[in-house]
Amino acid sequence: MRNGWIVGLLVCALPAGTLADKPKVSRAMVKTMEESMDQKFQSLWPDNPVQVVGLTQGAYINGYGAVFMSELNLATGPTISPFHPNISPDEVKRIHEKKLSRLAQLKATMQQMLVDSARSMDPVPADEQLALGISFFYWNWENREGLPAQIVMHAPKKLLLDTTLAKASIPADEF
Fold first, then answer.
1. Does 17 fall in a domain?
2. What one-character-per-residue DSSP string does 30-94 give?
3. Total number of domains constituting the chain
4. Does 26 have pLDDT greater than 80?
């Protein structure tokens, strides 16, 4: 009986309509942004594209905003096989340098993706966040020195719509 009262009090304490509110952003809108982001990732370096390991996944969270996550391999390299049983030190160095050189352009592209998503996702309120997180895939033989495991960027929609501020103000958290 006492548990029933506690549950009743908790339900009454919630703001009216919280449990039944429909999301402001449709799943179709989120899916469109996911596909757009995947296309942008794949077209970054057409001569030697990144490998999109996991397709971008997005979600809209009422009261917070829209969050998008993806996993990328910034530069593909040799794989161990019966015909290529070892990775040479030169191959390790070449892949490492290529990944390091691509980080700046990837960060700029991520900023632009956030700005584009702010323009495309009209139902997201101006005070809510848009976030983009990229996790990176590495082979166990790779040199990961100076390379992040993940980059996360987020900003309020109102800041992203003011693109002059957005370019200078979107922080990139690297883990």
1. no
2. HHHHHHHHHHHHHHSSTTSPPEEEEEEEEEEETTTEEEEEEEEESS-----BTTB----HHHHHH
3. 1
4. yes
Contact 69, 113 (CB under 8 A): no
Q: What is the pLDDT of residues 72-101, one digit of tens each?
A: 999 988 777 788 788 899 999 999 999 999
Q: What is the chain's alpha carbon radius of gyration, rounded to the nearest angstrom? A: 21
Give the contacts of 72 (CB within 8 A, at least 6 positions apart): 41, 50, 51, 52, 53, 106, 134, 135, 136, 137
Q: Where in the sequence is the domain holding 131, given as residue range(s)? A: 23-174
CA separation for the pair 75, 99 (Å, rounded) = 6
Residue 133 backbone dihedrals phi, psi, to 5 degrees: -120, 135
Residue 2 lies in a domain: no
**HSE-up of residue 129 (Cα within 13 Å, Cβ side):** 15
